[in-house]
Design a protein that fits this description.
single chain, 293 residues, alpha/beta, Rossmann fold, 2 domains, seven-stranded mixed sheet, 7 strands, 15% strand, globular
């Protein structure tokens, strides 16, 4: 005959059933969440390479013919986006552009021009979204098919936790022009998985922002919260089918050049002759620095 256990007998036994589970939960490290931002046409208006093409020519890093070709290619990207073939061709072209350039010189150039020609074009909405993630305690990363040197400097300026970008081969301190790693398409997805492994990030709870079906879709599919920003037609249709949010970022935080005048009183900016002379002097000084790179 089965004996009925009273409450006093069962309580200690039932209490022990949850101990292994609670110990396992306690031993499991807490996983962080992160936000991964594509750069061109998502974080900022147009193409970062387009914005630095003219300064590159003035610094002697880009022949005039190559600059014109770059302007045409990057302008098409700014207006219409790229498909798979165009993006890979643009990456090879970018590698050829920096072939033979010393890596230290390229980094000095990036530190000089990115604050002036690229940072002011970052969308105000993107900055606000980064701030929102910061307030949540999320890590923030930039992920771009542009050259690593430029994106690394932009990441420093925005105060993000890390970047993933296209990396060129270096030999004896110079760029060979050969692309070692193209951070595009599946390469972007691989990059954010590597960042997640290094930083203990739970991708299922993380966010990714992108605009391109060809370049950003694998990255967007790798996270639990994909967000399409200024998306091309194919990505917009895919997002609608998947129920993903689609956002429009439109407001540049500052016009290039306006950042240097933001701190001055309005009457000084608009009518002061000395202010104009100081601004002209700054332009000449920047041009001189570019020629000396």
């Amino acid at each position: 005959m089965a004996r009925t256990l009273d409450r006093a007998e069962t309580a200690p036994r039932l209490a022990t059933l949850g101990i292994p589970r609670m110990v396992a939960e306690h031993d499991t490290p807490t996983r962080r969440t992160a936000a991964f931002f594509d750069v061109d046409r998502t974080l900022l208006r147009g193409s970062s390479l387009l914005h630095v093409a003219r300064p590159m020519r003035r610094a002697g890093l880009l022949p005039t013919g190559a600059m014109l070709h770059s302007l045409i290619v990057q302008m098409r990207f700014s207006l219409f986006g790229f498909d798979e073939v165009h993006i890979r061709a643009a990456a090879r072209s970018a590698g050829a552009i920096v072939a033979g350039v010393e890596s230290e010189r390229l980094m000095r150039f990036a530190r000089l021009v990115m604050p002036v020609h690229v940072l002011p074009r970052v969308y105000a909405e993107a900055r606000a979204q980064i701030d929102w993630h910061r307030a949540r305690g999320d890590l923030v990363f930039l992920v771009s098919s542009s050259p690593y040197e430029f994106i690394a400097v932009l990441g420093e300026l925005l105060g993000v936790d890390g970047v993933a970008a296209t990396q060129a081969e270096m030999l004896d301190g110079r760029c060979t022009g050969r692309i070692l790693r193209l951070c595009h398409g599946a390469g972007k997805a691989d990059s954010i998985r590597e960042l997640a492994a290094i930083h203990g990030v739970d991708l299922s709870q993380s966010y990714a922002y992108g605009d391109s079906y060809a370049s950003d879709l694998p990255m967007l599919e790798s996270v639990g919260h994909p967000v399409c920003v200024n998306a091309d037609r194919r990505l917009t249709l895919h997002a609608e089918n998947q129920g993903w949010p689609v956002e429009r970022f439109q407001r540049a935080a500052l016009r290039p050049g306006a950042a240097r005048l933001r701190g001055l009183p309005r009457r000084v900016v608009t009518v002061s002759g000395p202010a104009v002379r100081r601004a002209s002097g700054h332009v000449r000084e920047t041009a001189r620095s570019l020629r000396q790179l």
